């Protein structure tokens, strides 16, 4: 018999007991994700010998092929609904998984969505990355393109606040402004709660190291802080694909200050690894595309060229060349989603090559 489920329901959030000492905790949460996500062994054919690799399938969180952002949005949009907001305003690159996830979730919840997207080419005929942008548009989001190198604290945040003021004045719509990646104190609890989930799955006690791709820093911060609070013996690593370790250490330090753990230093909580961004954020090589195809054609798990492949590439390369960086051989990779980056103009040649080689 069909019964109404708890999806899209706002409820009070009961945080894990091991967060009791923190100064900040969200009060509400809205059900968006399909949890728990599974963990399985990942047999990549070119993985270094000795590596026991596992993957946490957070690409399966739901919400139109989800990813890690959905966990954060459960808390961020839960707060927005609880406070009576009618709209959300967020920002990111034109390829932003966070913006796409926000656009989809907002419409599921009846909220208007406004996006500030950083891009160079903004005309309909020369958009660089059609995948996520197509979904943003199909969800009815209102989009403003801004310079590709504009920084959040140096222009974007001000634009968000001005738009929020305008919506309140002109339409009497209260709005919530969400930072890049949903990486604030509210969104932090997405991966504090994910750590609780992995404890319940008995994952943490069976791995030595955890790797994640680091694009805005919120997921990495949540994992590192939860690891510390629970006294777990896992080593957490984050491979940077946008900024660098100096920026991410600063972001995590700001987060620690905000939750009452300012006495801790980020460098002692997490190993942030530079060197795998390549020629720039979102830039992809032919070799990267070939590796992505090899993985998907042998394991059925897709990596995207902007985030997950670069994080995984860092894991595999560091294990091969810098084994002492790891606590052990049992390594868990958090797959943060991003499949729509494969629907990218840069993938055209890979499509042609695969077509020529595989179509009978």
Would you kindly provide a written description of the structure presented here, covering whatever features stand out?
This protein is of the alpha/beta class and 360 residues long. The chain is built from 10 helices and 12 strands. A 6-stranded mixed sheet has the order 3-4-12-9-10-11, sandwiched between helices. α1 crosses α2, α1 crosses α5 and α2 runs parallel beside α3. It is globular and about 60 Å long.
Distance between the termini: 46 Å
Quaternary organisation of the protein chains: single chain
Shape call: globular
**Main β sheet profile:** 6 strands, mixed
- H/E element order: EEEEHEHEHEHEHEHEHEHHEH
Low-confidence stretches: none
Number of helices: 10
Rounded radius of gyration (Å): 20 Å
Helix content: 25-40%
- Count every beta strand, where a strand is a DSSP E run of 2 or more residues: 12
**Whole-number mean pLDDT:** 93
Order of strands, main sheet, comes to: 3-4-12-9-10-11
- Proportion of residues in β-strands: 15-25%
Structural class estimated from helices and strands = alpha/beta
């Amino acid at each position: 018999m069909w019964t109404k489920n708890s999806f899209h329901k706002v409820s009070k959030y009961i945080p894990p007991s091991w967060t009791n000492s923190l100064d900040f905790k969200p009060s509400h949460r809205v059900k968006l994700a399909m949890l728990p996500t599974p963990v399985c062994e990942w047999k990549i054919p070119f993985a270094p010998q000795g590596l026991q690799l596992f993957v946490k399938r957070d690409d399966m969180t739901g919400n139109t092929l989800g990813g890690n952002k959905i966990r954060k949005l459960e808390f961020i949009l839960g707060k927005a609904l609880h406070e009576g907001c009618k709209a959300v305003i967020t920002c990111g690159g034109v390829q932003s998984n966070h913006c796409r996830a926000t656009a989809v979730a907002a419409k599921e919840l009846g909220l208007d969505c406004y996006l500030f997207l950083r891009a160079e080419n903004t005309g309909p005929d020369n958009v660089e990355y059609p995948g996520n942008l197509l979904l943003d548009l199909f969800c009815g989001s209102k989009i403003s393109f801004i310079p590709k190198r504009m920084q959040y604290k140096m222009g974007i945040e001000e634009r968000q606040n001005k738009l929020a003021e305008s919506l309140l004045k002109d339409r009497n719509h209260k709005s919530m402004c969400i930072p890049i990646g949903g990486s604030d104190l509210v969104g932090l609890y997405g991966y504090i709660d994910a750590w609780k989930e992995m404890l319940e799955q008995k994952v943490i006690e069976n791995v030595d190291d955890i790797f994640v791709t680091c694009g805005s820093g919120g997921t990495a911060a949540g994992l590192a802080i939860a690891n510390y609070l629970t006294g777990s013996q896992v080593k957490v690593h984050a491979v940077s694909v946008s900024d660098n370790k100096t920026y991410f250490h600063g972001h995590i330090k700001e987060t620690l200050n905000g939750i009452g753990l300012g006495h801790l230093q980020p460098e002692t909580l997490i190993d942030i690894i530079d060197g795998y961004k390549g020629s720039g954020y979102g830039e992809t090589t032919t070799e990267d595309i070939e590796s992505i195809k090899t993985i998907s054609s042998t394991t059925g798990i897709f990596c995207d060229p902007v985030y997950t492949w670069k994080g995984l590439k860092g894991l595999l390369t560091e294990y091969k060349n810098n084994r002492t960086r790891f606590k052990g051989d049992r390594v868990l990779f958090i797959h943060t989603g991003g499949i729509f980056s494969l629907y990218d103009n840069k993938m055209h040649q890979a499509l042609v090559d695969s077509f020529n080689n595989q179509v009978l």
